Amino acid sequence: MNDLMERLQRDFGVDDITVRKPALTTFRVKKDSAETLIRELRDREGYTHLNFMTCIDYIEDGIFTLVYMLHNYDKKHSLGVHVDISRENEDMVSIHTLWAQAWTYQRELREMYGINFPGSPRLEEDFCLEGWDDIPPMRREFDTKEFSEQRFGHREGRHSEEPRDHMKVELYPNRGGDEK
Amino acid sequence: MKLPFGRTTSSPISTGHSASLDFAQPEPVDLASGKYVKLWQGPQHPGITGNMSLELTLDGDTIIDCKTHVGYLHRGFEKLMERRSFIQNFTVVCRIAVPEPTFNEYLYSHAVEEISGIEIPERATWLRTMNLEMMRLASFLMWIGGQGGAFGQYTVANWTLAYRDYVLDLFEEMTGARIYHMYIVPGGVRAGLPDGFEKRAREIMDGTEKLLDQIERVMYNNTVFKARAKGLAVITPEMIDPYGIVGPNARACGVERDLRKDEPYLAYEHLDFDVITGSDSDAYERAYLRLQETRQCVSLIRQCLDNAPTDGPFQADMPNVLHWKVPAGETYVKAECTRGEYGYYMVTDGTEFVRRVHVRGPSYTHAIAVMERLAVGNNIADIAGMMVSLHTYPPEIER
Question: CB 3.0-4.6 Å disulfide test: which of A101, A167, B167, B393 passes with B365?
């Protein structure tokens, strides 16, 4: 594994290499090298299985981190490839030619985060949200509570508690909800 | 362990990437020509697996294009989890795969434990293993009924659903709930086994075994079932990696992969079982493989009953749930569910909320990329049986 990581560092400039557990290593690669590196891992290093592809929104840093999880069945080892892209310029190279299910993930990421994958098939089609015209809902700035309050409104006779405060009172009734 | 029959295939099995596989989308047809018909199968249809629909384009009775549509059950679970405390998420995760909630509970707990460095007691590993195998049994029983129903054998569906209910009775005894158990929690499980559970569980396992023999005679030897399922929707070994096919769908064409054996977790390394494989993954071979795996479940549950410690802690020392501190970290954990690799990817940032959870369900590729490819060229009458034979659960696609 060290040899592979050294080679990836040398050839692709990967950094932030972290061994999360014996069967999982994660690292970061630049956007421009990502597709070539993933193709290389698939074709030459035996990471033939795409477990999934997802995104993490770091709104405070102004970036999306795309995560490609690849698995090598012979070595029983997974690699988490992290790629940072700007939240403002949300374009990423498509990998739909590498795995048949990749375009589905890309279609979902476009709908949920607004990331564009030029060339990916059926990207404009709705995935889960038919006729959605709000901001992509998995972005951190999308407030689910505010959305549901606006969309569904208050129903007479319904009463709800803030779970955290309610449980404190339930657990420590004699101290007025003060756990100390 | 090889299935006793099925057409032979060239060996050794190769699952490498094949450049000849074409992922290109089909060209749209001219509906205005009047030669073709567009037909929606689902979301409300007895032959559909859960709340999804297939947009089919037909030339006569033959399907020439298929598009899967999901979203009818989208509840935004992954988004919800980002705004709820770690313990609150338990009411969310179990709803992601309705017929198999336990795998979600286990993987979510395991991800939290791995990032937090929590070790669970040995008794909890056995109880979790048994719980997961009971879930597998209940899910397979439901699936056999679905597959029988899709080919007109409703009697089988009634039998298996009745026995699934007996397994749900066991869940109720063990966890207090029939469907959403919330039994597996970080640190272990919520309770040990109640008095008399072992005896009742063994009785139900004996009954299930007899039922499976009857089902094999009635359904699997039935001429109509054989004629319709054999040769239907064949998955070749070359498709496995490019399409991300896992579980029984992959094993039925001879690919010997099972996370319980390949990367053992919980108590699986102490259990005696073989990976069951077939030779030609058509609807019949997959159905027969699942029947064998259902029998294997019964054996594994018995082994858990034989070997699980009856005393000792079932829960590690954990702080008050309101004060859980999960350190910053990242992990991907996975388990073999009835349909193959089920996984949870979790990223935490040291706050009281999870930063990101991604749920990886096998249906994501089986119900979309694989389904859309296999449907083309088949008869409209076989589409329901074909869908069930891929064993898909839509909620895990749309999370």
Answer: A101
- Measured in degrees and rounded to the nearest 5, phi and psi for residue B258 equal -155, 120
The CATH class for the domain spanning B94-321 reads: mainly alpha
Neighboring chain B residues of A127 at a CB cutoff of 8 Å: 70-71, 398
| ipTM confidence score | 0.88
Domain boundaries along the sequence of chain B: 94-321
What is this structure's pTM? 0.89
Q: Answer for the pair B390, B367: CB distance below 8 angstroms, yes or no.
A: yes
**Which CATH architecture fits A2-154?**
2-Layer Sandwich (3.30)
Q: Mutate one of A43, A104, A105, A161 to test the B interface: name it (highest B CB count within 10 A).
A: A104
Between chains, do B80 and A24 touch, taking CB under 8 Å as contact? no
Distance CA B136, CA A95 (A): 34
CB proximity list for A71: less than 8 A, separation 6 or greater: A47, A48, A49, A50, A51, A77, A78, A79
Smallest Cβ–Cβ distance between A97 and the set B23, B323, B331 belongs to B23
Task: Write out the two tokens for B303.
Answer: 């082994």
What residue ranges do the domains of chain A occupy? Answer: 2-154
Residue A58, strand partner residues? A63
CA distance A94 to chain B (A): 13
The H-or-E segment that residue A20 falls in is: strand A15-21
Distance (Å, rounded) from C-alpha A51 to C-alpha B342? Answer: 9
